[in-house]
Amino acid sequence: MEQSKFSRRSFLQYALASWVFAGLGNLTSVFIQGAIPSAIAGDVGRSPMDAGRPSATAQEAAIFRAAHQILDKPRIFDDPIALRIIGAKTESALRSNPDGFKTRRSLRAFIVLRSRYAEDELARAVKRGTRQYVILGAGLDTFPYRNPYPESSLRVFEVDHPATQSWKRQRLGEAGIATPDSLVFVPIDFERQTLADRLNRAGFRADQPSFFSWLGVVVYLTKSAVMETFKFVASLPVGSEIVFDYSVPPSLLTEKQRSAREAGAKRVATMGEPWITYLDPSSLISELQGMGFRHVEDLSPEEANERYFKGRADGLRLGGAGRLMKAWVG
Prior knowledge:
Elements: H1 8-21, H2 27-35, H3 38-41, H4 56-71, H5 82-85, H6 88-96, H7 105-127, E1 132-136, E2 155-160, H8 162-175, E3 183-187, H9 195-201, E4 211-214, H10 223-234, E5 241-247, H11 255-270, H12 281-291, E6 293-299, H13 301-308, E7 322-329
Parallel strand pairs: 1-2, 1-4, 2-3, 4-5
Antiparallel strand pairs: 5-7, 6-7
Helix pairs in contact: 1-4, 1-6, 4-6, 4-7
């Protein structure tokens, strides 16, 4: 296939399918060698978003959330739209090769846990009166399309890189998933634009308490960009809250955990999305409290396994490298 004839839609079909087969063991090399055109191969290592393409890791996370709906019983996270948003062809590939995902069970557990945890905390925030929900680095998050709250109770802002957001809107249209009136799309490049400015332009009310989720993003940004985002949330009214995941420095991992994370880091780096920032929990808590967050909770893998995965017979549980934290303004 000549590069000039390689359309955006064709690329997306190849890219999304490649991430499905990345979870299917030996099928990965067969698929890549036999199906991905040279036009893509020449872009390995370049940021997909810089090239006007959606985030590959956002696609992967969506596939794992979809896989969870099929593979795991009981589910940690119910998402009836997860399979629709990845597309019929990808869903078919997933259903025909479910065993291939069993070797990446710990990663799947973390991806579904962080969504469950964020939405649990969001529900508590709404009960306290929060009326704005900001999804930072939304990817293929489906909450806005299954939002159980009326528009008057919760307005949702999806914040993401323009390339990923444009592709998501195309996917929604192809899947017949309607965009609710309560949703506002906010395109942003976290490294080049300020969150405050982009949200302000979208109609966000900075004088009201708000809830933020920031999942699968922090590790890909510079620390300065991460801290600027935290400072913005900390500047909002009392009761504002953020839930996010992050990765700890290698020194805090076991040898097995370090080995697994290094393998994962190398894989995503080849797709142009390298891991950049690792945060020490103790130092991070101190920094957040210094910004004005009254309370900070660090959910360790052990605590998460006890709370969400206790008593399971299928072995679905966290491996220990990923962490979740929530902080609210006091």
